[in-house]
Design a protein that fits this description.
This protein has 480 residues and is α/β, with parallel strands linked by helices. 37% of the residues lie in helices and 20% in strands. α13 links the parallel β10 and β11. It is globular and about 65 Å long.
Length: 480
Amino acid sequence: MTGRDSDSDCTDDRHAHVTIENRSTLERTPAHELALECVTAGLEAAHPERVLDERLAVEDDVLSIRDVDGGTTRYELASYDDVVVVGGGNAAGHLARALETHLGDRLSGGAVVTDDPAPTDLIEVLPGDHPFPSERGRESTRRVLELADGAGEDDLVLACITGGGSALVVAPAGSLSVDDLRTVTDDLLRSGASIDEINAVRKHCSAVKGGGLADVASPATVVGLVLSDVVGDDLGVVSSGPISPDPTTYADALAVLERYGIDGPDAVLEHLRRGDRGEFPETPVTGAATFDGVTSHLLASATTAIDAAAGIATDCGYDPLVLSSGIRGESSEVARVHVAIAEECLATGNPVTPPAVLLSGGETTVSVTGDGGTGGPNQEFVLSAALELTDEEIVVASVDSDGIDGPTDVAGAIVDSSSLAASGLEFGEARTALAENDAQPALEAMGTLVRTGPTGTNVNDLRVVVVDGEGGGDGSDSRS
């Protein structure tokens, strides 16, 4: 087996939706080119139009949906008075557009909330904001809830549920304001809390999350079309589970805030305490009548992107090794582990002999210290890797599949052992940037940021580590 050379042709010519805007400046070597091709193929494979082409069909007025586990469910469209689309998330606009392509005039209409719009004819694609909830997201959500509430027993509601919906779909519970939700979301994201913990709070501060949308749409038949951006693909976590049972309680939400030392806003604390005292009903649980007419289908996940990237690696003569589709932990620490595995491949041929491509998905976190800087989990991962790399035969790339890493305008970055030295930054300066959660300026100085713009999908993070193993660096450590 041989690795890729500059004359090889092993690209995926099916890319139609995802473009790395600054790709030509990032492809410094064939290994960089391969890493970026793996990234692009992975994101493209998870795009809603590609996903629905593979998993949804309409024939003789029968809608067939095939889940990632291979099971197929069929719905007789003629048995419903109206077919309505609702939902939200980063990829909801593109999912709505793909549904129009397949269902055409069988659709009665609909509305979804997104920050990545796509042109549609029947379905309203309404604006929202991510990663923090906004007033315009609230206004858009009112329309979604209006349509869901108007659905009757003989109607079919297709719920587009994708990553990002927790921020984009906004319906504050009780007397809470959007500012209250924004503040507690910011505090939670900075704390390093897991997505499950964050969502336990979100669900109990919302009228749409934690089964709320299913409750509003009942007694209609509700069919969830889900693109998962969460580790383990728990459908109750994606977009905070708007049509899924909620196993968490008001007490769980309060415990999360206490665990991470989050003291406010006062309105949120009071709302959760009143709920814990029984003054507000709990979110609906498994077995509740709310879910009698609800079925959810997982159509794509991190594995979808990883499998496509692995296919590119194989076509290029590299052995792909999937480390895990559910990586979690502190971004900087996870990066050190990935680099150590790549170094072991070079030194011993374990766990895979180079030329190889190590792949992982999942969601790492960043515990923000002080005021923090500019960056996101993927940028922290790559900057940490840049501080560890000493062998030029290893290239490390990491991106957020929605094209937006944290509250920034970039997807992630790509580095090798020469990136730091070439930037003119001192090792100590880069290490300080990492410690201060200020990865983006350092990676910008290195010229290693990956810019895709919104990708139309969201299946969490995708990490690609190319291990060439065909000669090169002497392994010397130039750090000081």
